[in-house]
Amino acid sequence: MRARVLVVDDDPALAEMLGIVLRSEGFVPSFVADGERALAAFRDSRPDIVLLDLMLPGMSGIDVARAIRGESGVPIVMLTAKSDTVDVVLGLESGADDYVVKPFKPKELVARMRARLRRGEDVAPELLTIGPPGNQITIDVPAHTVSRDGEEVKLTPLEFDLLVALARKPRQVFTREVLLEQVWGYRHAADTRLVNVHVQRLRAKIEPDPERPEIILTVRGVGYKAGTG
Amino acid sequence: MRARVLVVDDDPALAEMLGIVLRSEGFVPSFVADGERALAAFRDSRPDIVLLDLMLPGMSGIDVARAIRGESGVPIVMLTAKSDTVDVVLGLESGADDYVVKPFKPKELVARMRARLRRGEDVAPELLTIGPPGNQITIDVPAHTVSRDGEEVKLTPLEFDLLVALARKPRQVFTREVLLEQVWGYRHAADTRLVNVHVQRLRAKIEPDPERPEIILTVRGVGYKAGTG
DNA sequence: CGGCGTCTTCACGGCACCGTAGCGCCGAGG
DNA sequence: CCTCGGCGCTACGGTGCCGTGAAGACGCCG
After folding, report:
1. B218 CB neighbours strand C below 7 A
2. Neighbours of B82 (CB within 10 A)
3. Which end of chain A is flanked by fewer CB atoms within 10 Å, N or C?
4. What are the CA-CA distances from residue A84 to residues A79, B72, B176 (Å)?
């Protein structure tokens, strides 16, 4: 029952290190150094999880992630150098489930991989993605940023918290009372219309067509939920 | 699988020593003695990492670093004599990722090279760079200096610590409470406005236009973060 | 088809948050 | 003893965020 990992990275030294770490942690790693081979290897071996460098020769990690995501729901963890800066926002929207910034602690990487594999161990993911395919937004929790189509969307603190609350459990409906408690900290019910207003403001910023919301959906008579497609 | 190192140094004795050390540590080194050859060799062999002496005949290490950085993101580790001091500031902004001061312990050099290559082992880098392209500042942690556009920026100890705390995890937002703990050592919350004031003082010194900060950014309702692009 | 409840949309005022300037203490160095 | 830089603290003004109220649109029911 050892998980098979596909590592996509063009840095041989890093690959070697990952090999040692992953094997000692009970994973079965395989390695490729560029995007084309990554896709072929993925289709061939169907790994349980993919580790993907953002910077690759030729086909970028972004394209690889998109391609894999197009044909599988396999967990993808991105490796990014902090110097990548400009590409980060775009990279995160490509369908990755989580990311770690180089240099990273091997333990942290393994913890995040395990968390993606078995939902039991709760390392809060750095990235949350919601919305139907073709209309997704990505939330970078520690950076407190939200992006769509590679553009950062400016949100107020309250809007951000509300979005995160919904995105943490996509498809699950939250009543206004629950949201008031989780986001506002109100212990016992206040005016629930507050929630309506802020959902509306949020939609105005993140929905391409706020009149037909696809990311934050209304469940009439109950509350709201985040859509995933 | 073994990392290829391009060593740029005009001192044959040092080169010989480096050859022995690097080979014994599993690297595959190649050597050139001046800047022009360095560039040619780099374009030709595309090494995994570059070791670069700051003092070179003809084209200086600074220019070489800039040229390489202009066409590749390859890790560059500078070798500097402690007597260089004056040139160091300029050299550090040329795009190097780390540096070691001669005379150095072979073990330290190798550790720093590994840290740049396999990002897993975290040797804290000597150099931190933050700010958007074209408006970057470089922090030399052991030297306790900060420079922008080749000019050293004078900071007080507190300002320096605050800047380093933010720069160690760029893009990530820090609350004022966390900063008070990390920088001031206050265990449980004091007046967080203290942080505001020092951020402002810091900006006055490092931001070209303090009214439109690009290096230290405010995240309203949350805290501050260092920008990278 | 009509009515009612639910949700959406807009406008507006209070206020928390942040940026900025200024003052005073304290310790280091002359 | 005096000077000066570094730091803590307060005060004040502006900006944008948030909460409320009220009217308009929509869907679900009889």
Report:
1. yes
2. 9
3. N
4. 10, 12, 27
CATH number, position A217: 1.10.10.10
Q: Is A45 helix (H, G, I), strand (E, B) or coil?
A: helix
What is the tens place of the pLDDT at every residue in A29-71?
Answer: 999 999 999 999 999 999 999 999 888 877 888 889 989 988 8
3-state helix, strand, coil in chain A (%, to 5): 40, 20, 40
SS3 A213: coil
Residues B30 and B97 occupy one common structural domain: yes
- Token pair for B92: 């550090």
Q: Residue A203 is encoded by which pair of tokens?
A: 């939609």
Whether the Cβ atoms of residue A59 and residue A35 lie closer than 8 Å to each other: yes
Residues 184-223/A with CB within 7 Å of nucleic chain C are 193, 196-197, 199-200, 203, 210-211, 213, 218-223
Q: How many domains does chain A have?
A: 2
* Domain carrying residue A76: 2-115
The answer on B163 and B108 residing in a single domain is no
